Amino acid sequence: MACVLFLIGASLLTVPWYVVLGLALVWVGVLVVALRWWTPHPRRLPWLPVGMAVLWFATVAGGAALFEWGA
User: From CA 23, how far away is CA 39, in angstroms rounded?
Assistant: First the structure.
């Protein structure tokens, strides 16, 4: 989860601030889920940062593709 947070923070150099804010809020929600799943579902925990990384990539790459397509 920490690695994905660094990806989200570094995105501020390339995407608008409100996109970074939205991703950060989603990250906080996923962190809360990870903390709640710590004991009852430990096998699910590695998939949470993977899903966040996929969401980050889809948001940044998808936004760039939409911006390029609309221009």
Answer: 26
